Structures are given as C-alpha cells and as structure tokens.
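Extended Data, panel c. Modelled sequence:
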Amino acid sequence: MYRCLIIDDEPIAIRVIRKHLSVFSDFGVVAECSNALEALPILQQETIDLIFCDIQMPQLTGIDFIRSLSHPPKIIFTTAYRDYAVDAFELNVVDYLLKPISFERFTKAINHFLEQEVQPKEMPHSDDLSANTRDFIFLKADKKHYKINLSDILYFESLGDYVIAHTAGNKIVSKERISHLAETLPARRFIQIHRSYIVSIDKIQSLGPGFVEIKNKKLPVGRNYKADLSWLLTD
C-alpha cells in the first residue's frame, strides 16, 4: 500500500484528488492538510510515499515547502498555474498536474509514479527479467478504467489517438497515444517494432524478414525499428 498525503488550501481540490485516488486499491490517504506547515508534523510521524501538493498556498508555497525537506517523498504538484513548471521539475517531481485535474490525466501521473518506484529495484538487476517492474497498467475504455496485467498483453496496436490492447482473450480500445505507452511501459518487457505496434517480448513466437509473429499473427516491423530488434537474436 502506497501511503499518500494531500496538501491543498482548496477543499474542493482535496476532494477531487481523494476521489481519483480511491479508484486505485494500492493507494491510501494518510492525511489531508490545508497548508504546508500542517504537513510537517505528519511527515515526522508517518511514512509517506507520495505527496500531492498545491503550489500557491498561504504562509509557504509548495515549491518552498518541498525545497525545505531534506529527504522528500515522491511529489506530484497539483496547481492551477503553469508558471511554476520549470521550478517544479528542477525538484525531480513525478508529475505536474494542472487543475481541473481529469481522471485520465491523474491516471497517467499514477503510472509515472509506479514506473519511478520500480527503477531502483531494476538497476542492480538490469539483466534479470524476474526482477523488473510492476505488473499492470490502467487503460480507459467505455467510461471505465481497466486494470490489465502486463503478462496478459500480447501487443498494442495504434489507431491515431487510440490504441488497442490485444490480450489472449480480449481487446480493449483506449484513447491513448502509442508514443506515451512507449515511454511508460517497461523496456525489458515491451518493444516497439513499428510506429503502430508495441509487442510483448516474451510473447514473440518467431522473427522473420520484416515481421514478428505473435499468436500466429504476423505484425510488420518498421524499417526504423529493425535495429532495435537485433539484440533479441544475440546470446
């Protein structure tokens, strides 16, 4: 369970974040604070994994608050202002969400957090497939957010601003760009073979001249992606 702290001087903003977060069973809210100073004793007493922090707050801004922490948890800034983005990312924050925060955008921020969480675990074992990443993603379809186990995915197919997630027994069509999936999926488990296809490496049955075969279906390999596949053929 990831333990979260919400800091915002707007009660409505806190309710929105709490509601969005309630969908994710692996996340829980430890406390809610109306300003940064209220959060200090909580950080001293509790273990916090992730802070959702507003920027423009009375007494102490979110930027200055995070700078004051010697060992801050992971941070997602939630703000109505674009002006602080550069300052925020200099602090190595997970994400920078602009209000009003849609659930779709919130989900991407959660995925960014989960992706960062697994990185320290992967680095000492970069060649060990059993030691890598979280095993699921969320995709929005039919006004729902589906949790899909990465082990069930055969490949992703792009259709403009949408992708189709092909699994062994289902297809899920989601409004998501394949370029974003390419950035967020674990690189040791998935590989892009074409501008329209990302495939699960362990589901590849065979490689041929200009194609990859998965579940007896031949998927095209783009000319610019052939070199990326070469390492699969090395010992």
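Residues 120-133 have pLDDT under 50 and may be disordered. This feature is highlighted in the accompanying rendering.
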